[in-house]
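Title: Comparing notes on inverse folding

I've been comparing how different people in this forum approach sequence design from structure. To keep things fair, I'm posting one structure and asking everyone to reply with a full sequence. Here's the target:
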């Protein structure tokens, strides 16, 4: 069993009375008990600050913890954050293992649940991360995720470098210039997609996480990401953001750093102006008068 902390923030647009809060608590607790019978509550607190409640519980895996947060999201309405917790003594015992992981790239075998793969991958790598879950009743508008100072949300795309798949990653809002990437690498770079990934991830839904070792392909990141204190990304189309320190990200992934992203849209190819042919008319010369001949 893993211990999790769940921070919940009630929607500011919904008015609550003491009676409605108690009814909401009973309803949500009953639904979680029905849908997550293996979850065990350890503590519940009211938080004075930006958040509303703090719940501490044990769950067998991240999928169960995420299901509990989605119940709160859907019936709150609320926004939740889930933090996996590790006891200090257990952390100290894991330090030697963390040093070993830092010395070599991390490989992980897919276990069948895509989001679980990401969570297990980061935990085995010894990375501290934050999982924020949002309700996603509709695909649009896009979820607006709040970042800590210095943090950046990243986008990840699959490309083919000389015919081999790779991931490229840049801050959200910038355009990935494949021509600049190819020039920097001295290679031919073409657009790709999840279908180009090896193994079972070839049919994974986008957006993809910027985790090359997990997806078993090289990772190239834009130079601008190196100034971030933390990065946040969505994984496999879920309504959750995963946030971790850039230092941990660089240690785990050991990406190749190149400058290839630009602000704004790529300039369109200039169009050759169409010249309309002009109709040439010939002016008629005045008729010459023939001189009058005398007999």
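Reply #1:
Here's my take.
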């Amino acid at each position: 069993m893993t211990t999790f902390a769940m921070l919940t923030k009630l929607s500011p647009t919904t008015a609550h009375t003491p009676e409605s809060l108690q009814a909401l608590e009973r309803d949500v607790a009953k639904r979680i008990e029905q849908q997550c019978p293996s979850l065990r509550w350890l503590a519940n607190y009211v938080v004075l600050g930006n958040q509303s409640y703090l719940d501490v519980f044990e769950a067998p895996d991240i999928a169960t913890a995420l299901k509990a947060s989605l119940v709160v999201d859907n019936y709150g309405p609320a926004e939740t954050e889930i933090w996996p917790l590790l006891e200090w003594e257990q952390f100290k015992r894991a330090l030697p293992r963390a040093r070993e992981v830092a010395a070599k790239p991390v490989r992980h075998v897919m276990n069948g649940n895509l989001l679980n793969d990401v969570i297990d991958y980061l935990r085995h790598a010894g990375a501290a991360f934050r999982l924020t879950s949002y309700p996603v009743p509709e695909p649009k508008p896009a979820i607006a995720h709040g970042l800590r100072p210095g943090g950046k949300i990243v986008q990840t795309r699959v490309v083919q470098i000389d015919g081999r798949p790779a991931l490229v990653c840049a801050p959200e809002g910038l355009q990935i210039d494949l021509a600049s990437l190819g020039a920097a690498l001295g290679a031919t770079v073409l657009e790709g997609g999840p279908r180009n990934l090896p193994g079972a991830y070839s049919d994974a839904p986008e957006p993809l996480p910027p985790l090359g070792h997990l997806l078993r392909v090289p990772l190239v990141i834009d130079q601008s990401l190196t100034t971030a204190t933390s990065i946040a990304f969505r994984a496999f189309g879920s309504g959750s953001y995963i946030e971790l320190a850039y230092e941990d990200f660089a240690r785990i992934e050991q990406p190749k750093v190149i400058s290839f992203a630009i602000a704004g849209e790529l300039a369109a190819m200039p169009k050759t102006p169409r010249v309309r042919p002009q109709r040439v008319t010939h002016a008629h010369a005045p008729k010459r008068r023939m001189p009058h001949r005398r007999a």
